[in-house]
Amino acid sequence: MSNVETTGTRSPSRWERLFDRSTRELLVGMLFAAPYLVLFSVFLLYPLLKGLYMSLHEWNFLEPSKSTFVGLENYTRLLEDPAFWNALWNTLEFVGLTVPLIVGISLVLALGLNKELVGSRVLQFVYFSPYVLTVSVVGIVWAQMFAQGGVGTQYLGWLFEGSPLNSKFWAMPAIVVTTVWWQAGFYFAVLLAARQNVPARLYEAARLDGAGPWRMFRDVTLPHMKNALLFVVIASTIFQFQVFGQPYLMTKGGPVGSTETLVYYLYELGFQTRELGFGAAVGYTLLLILVGVSMLNYVLVGTNDE
Amino acid sequence: MSNADSTQSVLNRVTDRDVLRRIGLYAVMYGLAIVFFVPYWRMFQLSVTPMSVLSQGGFHWIPPELTFAVWQRYLLQEPIIYQWAFNTFLVASITTAIVLVVDSMIAFSITRLDWPGQGIILAVIMASFMIPGYVNIIPLYTLINDLGLMNSYWAIILPFAAGPLGVFLLVQFFRDIPEELEEAARLDGFSSLRIYARIILPLSTPILTALGLFVFIWSWNQFLWPLIVLNDDALYTLPIGVVTLRDVNALAPNVIMTSLALASLPLFIVFLLFQDKLISSVQMQAGTG
């Protein structure tokens, strides 16, 4: 700023005379930061802290002042609640089936479309487009496909005798298939870019060394796509952990709770039985699990960069 | 001669293998595309199948009779889907506008201005990146209730706009814009506001478009949260609305499928128009992961 003054193109304004430079930067800086910080504090930080507070109380929704402090009771109750363990187990089953399928299919799609194919734009459109659908469209269409008389029962009916959505064993796999169809396109786009960023000369060099397709894949493609693959695994794990819409729309968590997931369980506690304190404890437990997954991400990526 | 022959046969073998590989590749890629396409086909096919065929049961890939009656009904006679589409558009556009303005402002403040404490603030925002939205729904619900925002679009817009993804992306992008441009502008007496509006924002069009597209799509598609805070049909967004239509028309798959197809059309058109932009936007997000 002193430059401006000495060259004399401009005389200092009142604003500049009133505050020195660092005060001005602080004021302007806070002004620019304020709108987001207000949103962030009110709608993200505050609920986060309030959730912790609520989870230590027997919460009274209508008259919060009548809530009673119960310490860690909600958490100990949680650990003894079979419905919680059931929801956790179902969620793990869902994530454990969905993530590997998403990674595998999106990798196949990405590697295949990396080659020059006739109609590759159309293929890309078909693979990616389910991702722009809302979960209610996805859930309802697939519920129809798996219903009695749908595509699923028409061709695979011998497997599950009737609709898979009514089977304790097959309902979850049906939801997994639905989810893979919905989500794989997004990760396919991520992996396609990663594959296209592998320098072509590396493949030339490998070919000169007499490497076949499998060795090229193992020694060139995989190592160079490692970060992208890691991103796909972590991002899809965190996202799929919060599955709600598909079981809500397709099975209502049934049959006999076999597709009730953690967020579904949270939803029921909060918005059907109104056990808000206990529900907040479930929310916090879910938070801890997912922060754990994220930390693992940092550890893995951190060691990876060196 | 024999030498040339053997070269020829090696070449043949190589090209044979290549041809086989290509055939295999096409079979896999188009096979998967057909599988991916089946739900779309079923949605469309059932939407144009008359009730008389549907009520007989039986499975068809191609319906023996066609009718566009349900499409006509929703397109011309019952405005409810337009109403929901408008609501959804309103929510998604306001959310997108707020996110772009507010996030770029704070990202500008953190990367281009210098004030004490900005490092800590950025660290807190980044840390919140690990907190997935759904775990907060119960305390957020009580907050929205206390603020009297139940059954209003602000209940959907404001919590979404508080998310840190945009700040995260923009901070990374703004950092890489060279200082020189800004210094030259400061020497010319540009205020911070002008530097933000005239230099930083125009240079960031690609990342702002990418962020805007995704915020728009995600907020358009939100399901759980609007389900909780909206309870008036007239205010519903499309994702919630089609669920009530399904519950009302449980025995008429043609009605359900028509409403789903109509509900999907707007974003499908967006995707058709911005296919390349959208695909490259996915990659920008992943680049920061």
TrEMBL record, chain A:
Is the keyword Glycoprotein assigned to this protein? no
**Sorted alphabetically, which Pfam families does this protein's record hold?**
BPD_transp_1 (PF00528)
Where does the sequence pass through the membrane?
26-49, 94-113, 125-149, 169-194, 228-249, 276-300
Residues annotated as domain ABC transmembrane type-1: 88-297
In terms of superkingdom, the source organism counts as: Archaea
Q: How does it sit in the membrane?
A: Multi-pass membrane protein
- Tell me where it resides: Cell membrane
Please provide the record's keywords in A-Z order: Cell membrane, Membrane, Transmembrane, Transmembrane helix, Transport
Q: Which SUPFAM superfamilies match?
A: MetI-like (SSF161098)
Q: List, in alphabetical order, the GO biological process terms annotated in this UniProt record.
A: transmembrane transport
Tell me which GO cellular component terms the UniProt record holds.
plasma membrane
Q: Which family does it belong to?
A: Belongs to the binding-protein-dependent transport system permease family.
* Protein name, as recorded: Carbohydrate ABC transporter membrane protein 1, CUT1 family (TC 3.A.1.1.-)
Automatic annotation (TrEMBL), chain B:
Q: Carries keyword Lipid biosynthesis?
A: no
Look up and give the membrane topology term: Multi-pass membrane protein
Cell location = Cell membrane
What GO cellular component is one of the record's annotations? Answer: plasma membrane
Signal peptide residue numbers: none
For this UniProt entry, what is the primary localization, expressed as one broad class? membrane
This protein's superkingdom? Answer: Archaea
Q: Name one Pfam family in it.
A: BPD_transp_1
Query: Where is the chain membrane-spanning?
Result: 23-41, 84-108, 120-141, 153-174, 195-220, 255-274
An individual GO BP term: transmembrane transport
Question: What UniProt keywords apply to this chain's record, in alphabetical order?
Answer: Cell membrane, Membrane, Sugar transport, Transmembrane, Transmembrane helix, Transport
Q: Which family does it belong to?
A: Belongs to the binding-protein-dependent transport system permease family.
Protein name per Swiss-Prot or TrEMBL: Multiple sugar transport system permease protein
Please name the source species. Halogeometricum limi
Source lineage? Archaea, Methanobacteriati, Methanobacteriota, Stenosarchaea group, Halobacteria
